[in-house]
Amino acid sequence: MSEISLNLETRKDTGKEISRRLRREGRLPGIFYFRGAENIPFSVNKKELSTLLGSESGLLNVIFDGKDSKKCVVREIQFDPLTNAPIHIDLLGITLTEKITVMVPIQLVGVPDGVKNEGGILQHHAREIEVECLPTDIPEHIEIDVTDLNIGDSIHASSISLDKVKILADDDMVIANVGAPRIVEEEAPAILGEEEGEGAEPEVVGKSEEESE
């Protein structure tokens, strides 16, 4: 498993105004948590953090003020609901000898038979899954082969088996399935005269001989 390093700057001031100022300066506010220790407010360069957001690595090596180094995982990243830009990050300090609970991305591999040969639709329901393991055993992602799926077939969490990693999701949680192709019903062409009602009499132009008398 790859490991990413992040340089953090500790900060004493907290609050919404401080967080806004940091974001204007190109830095993201955050909190470092560690069991039994005092929380550490920090900020991180947004550009450096973008490396983390584009990676699948679960284990981080953070360096505080260029001195102290600690191992951690991402606890939570908050995003702006309108721009989807990160606005806050929480990190959780870890001990390499203690198991932790993390979310791991799921990648589907292959083209299902039901899609290739029957026109079915592959539906990816769970894009990450909760696991428990030692920090050094966190998988970057979990690959699931969907090649043998036909229309109506599903893959559940119970089918995932990994060495040194315990799957915490419910066994019946659906990871992916192949659904039937969507059928679009076309409207039948209108038959001449139907719009005016079946058996409608033709419009009479002018007056009949009896009416003209």
Give the helix/strand layout.
Layout: E1 3-10, H1 16-24, E2 27-33, E3 40-45, H2 46-53, E4 59-64, E5 68-79, E6 86-93, E7 100-109, H3 113-116, E8 121-124, E9 128-133, E10 142-145, E11 154-156, E12 166-167, E13 174-179, H4 209-212
Parallel strand pairs: 1-4, 2-6, 7-10
Antiparallel strand pairs: 1-3, 2-3, 4-5, 5-6, 7-9, 8-13, 9-12, 11-13
Query: Which range does the strand content fall in?
Result: 35-45%
**Helix vs. strand class:** mainly beta
**Poorly predicted ranges (pLDDT <50, ≥5 residues)?**
199-213
Overall outline: elongated
The whole-angstrom Rg is 30 Å
* Mean pLDDT value: 84
Helical amount among residues, as a percent range?
10-25%
CATH superfamily of the largest domain: Ribosomal Protein L25, Chain P
Number of strands: 13
Protein described:
The chain folds into two domains: 92 residues, Ribosomal Protein L25, Chain P; 78 residues, Ribosomal protein L25, C-terminal domain (RNA Polymerase Alpha Subunit, Chain A, domain 2), CATH 2.170.120. It contains four helices and 13 strands. The chain has a six-stranded mixed barrel with strand order 1-3-2-6-5-4. It has a four-stranded mixed sheet with strand order 10-7-9-12, with no helix packed on it. A three-stranded antiparallel sheet has the order 8-13-11, with no helix packed on it. The chain is elongated. The protein starts with a strand and ends with a helix.
